[in-house]
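Per-record layout

source: Aliiroseovarius salicola
name: histidine kinase
length: 483
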Amino acid sequence: MSQVADGSALNDIVEFLEQGVAVFDAEANLSLANSTFCAMYPALSDILRPGTPWSIFLREAVNRGAMPLLTSQQLELMEANFDGAQGTTDIVEMPSSQGRSAVLRFGPLSDGGFVLTQSIRMDEASGNDAAREAELLLRKVLEACPASLTMSRVADGQVIYRSPAATELLGTAKSSFAHFAQVEERADFVTLLLPDAKVDNLRVTCLRPDGEAFPAVISARLIDYRGEDVIVASIEDLTTELAVQDELDRQKERLFQSEKLSALGELLAGIAHELNNPLSIIVGNTDILQEELESSPHEQRIDKISQAAYRCVRIIRSFLSLARQERLDLQPLDPARIIRAAADAVSVDLKAAKVQLQHGCSQSYPEILADEVQLTQVLINLLTNAIHAIQETGTGNQIDLNCTQKRKMFILRITDNGPGVDEAIKKRIFDPLFTTKDAGKGTGVGLAFCQRILLAHKGQIRLESAGLGNGASFVLEVPLAHP
């Protein structure tokens, strides 16, 4: 602030005012200007000092763009016609920026001087325009917002506002009640919201416009809108996120199974090699004893020993096949050839268990790309499992083989009418070392071995079962050699 009389009480009073105030003496020279007035004319900081003539103030204000020429001329005319009469005040409006205008008041002082005050007034029409612009901007932001936002009353659920993203996700129902698939979840949501006026990341089940339920998470705030409680909520669809999480879980499970098989393979390799030599001695001597004791009272016992020994041999071979992770010898093959080889291998077991094997693969199919030895072993394992299940439970008497072709894959379905598979173990049936057989009758290696071979073929194996008592169906998919 600039001033003439030091310590004057008038200076303190003028400085306190929110209006801009400039005081000129009887010779029309500036004697005082408060800081508010100086702030209104920053370009005149070197002019607004005591002693500056009124005419220079007006001229420099115009020259430096601080005042329109018309306003300067009006003020100059007021000063020229100034007669010093008390109680008279002249007013001039000076356009400003952003819909505002400056109101300048010119009035006399008792000492023959005059005062110029300046204040800012918001133009009502401009203020309305600014409000409309702000509302338009807010609407544009909400319309472009990718989040699903809704405003609804607490009492009756009536939707007051719904963003386009929310309309696409939830539809155009008049009540927010329709957004929830379960009434109980909506009640729980409101119950959690009311105490603290907020809810964050609450898991719920919502409904799409077509009535399909989907998992969602809702966050909300409770506000007062025109005198009533209103819920502002954001709803996020979790379908994709949960699908990604499920896929990650499946990949983790596959990695775990792979590591499990690798560790198991090392263990089985050591055990199999240690058992192979003494087992060969047992098998060899059993064959000799069978020849020497043929038609003797001991023949039946020797035969049981021989069967048990050969069963051990098959188990050891399965262990070694799983442990070695042998490289596939992929060749174009007739699938009927592999099916016939597997059927011939289990023909004795089929007869002993009184099980019929029905072929539904009579027509000619394109060649598949496969390792003949390993894929044949897969079919033998599956057929043997079906035979044992039927034989041990006394349920069923038939196994069906059916073939189809779908796009680039050959599909073989092995179905039996045996006891079936309990849903509780369906997801674990391909796990290494998992078996439903009694102790001593199963290793849990067979199906894990089958799955490993099919995956190495870039195919797959899956179980289709209708539950206990309804049989089991294993589906194998193997790539065609010439798709």
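summary: The radius of gyration is 47 Å. Residues 245-325 form a domain with the Helix Hairpins fold (CATH 1.10.287.130).
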